[in-house]
Amino acid sequence: MSSSGEIPAYLGRYRIDRVLGRGAMGIVYLAFDPHIERQVALKTIRGDVLDVADGGSATQGLSARFLNEARAAGRLAHPNIVSVYDYGESDETAFIAMEYVQGESLAARLAQHAAAGTLIEPSRALGWFTQLLDGLEYAHDAGVIHRDIKPANLLITQRGECKITDFGIARIDTSQLTRADALMGTPNYMSPEQFTGGPLDARADLFSAAVVLYEIMTGACPFVGTASAVMRHILDDDPRLPSELVPGLPAYLDAMLMKALAKRPEDRFASAREWRENLMGRIALDQSDDADRTIIAFAGPVAVLQAPSFEPSSRWSTTLVAQLEQQLATHVGPVASFLVRRATSQAQDVAQLRERLTRHFRTDAARADFNELLIRLSADLANGRATESASSSRNSSIARLATQPPSPLPVTATLLQEVTRSLAAYLGPIAKVVTSRAAANARDIDDFMERITAAVPDPKDQDKLRRTLAAIRDQSPQEN
User: Fold this and answer.
1) Known catalytic residue: 148?
2) Which one of 190, 330, 346, 448 is at 20 to 30 Å from 244 when CA atoms are compared?
3) Higher local confidence (pLDDT), 77 or 182
């Protein structure tokens, strides 16, 4: 890097486009990878900083943490974790090439709301938080403990996704990057065991995540003051209940946060998955139209969920209900049975059933797989292979709704497949979801094609796709 502070043209093979941010340790650039032809964010650390911090050694201290970030995040591939692609060194600069996320940090969002005197909408906050738990569950299963979960290390994309970043002090399995008694993390968000130097496991990240959720919901960090004051509060004091700061917040949030902020790890949620399952169950109950609301009662380390009883409508076969429960359970756990039974008790057709259930899946790919399962099961009903509780005429109608929009011009499975393949060139895996939704909601074939085209943001790409779709439509036997 130029000593004059000029932006270099290249770092390694990466072409530098512009500066995204500057810090005391280095600069983050927007760059272009010519090998894969994609934009990346290059996080750099200066050689002179390494020399000062490491006593002249470029293999310990900050440089070791920098490389640790590349190794920790590099082994994780999850939609709620910022992907790391590469580590390299060029001249006097070490760098990490990572996913370029268009958005801003949660810390920036919180600052904006604080300046305006407003709070983030609870439903949006809980949506981000469930994504945070998704990412933490994946990282913990891979043997990675982040150890510095805080708003500044959570990015909110323009599409409203939450992504975890900055694994610089993460612990990888039995990594010896830091001593057992080393104080690592950001004080306001550190778990008690991080302050005391005790053994760390995934529950340390859950404590930090609880501090983040408390701050999102109330606009105030529960532990503030000097470093020594914060340490004393975290070790000895319980924060005020969130509902005391923001009247109207539900009691279950108080209970969840107090459990997750317990001083002893064994008194917290055992895993991110357990917390997510309890939270999703509570949200599901809030979405219920049942007047008899049921709360989550915490008994020991496990939260017990008592849900209102729903019975599937006779229009849905027991085989279909069981398979939908099995598919959803791999993503949300035991609460899947409640969600499916509630949906099948209220949905009048496959389009409504799809709408009620797909929102509970974590990723676009999972939603697409679920939609394919729903189409397949509905076709089985229509063909008489799962007809325990629905008439043949009703089943035929269900299968039609699952595979085409309510239109005088039917959209065939072949046409859907060709349109999805063409759209995937612009949107990737999410194309399956977009195509399915367009097919379910379009008035006719023209509206269907226009919905597909409108899903592509670039006008030039829209023109290309429109021509491709016109060719596909001309070749479709249904249209000739």
Assistant:
1) yes
2) 190
3) 77
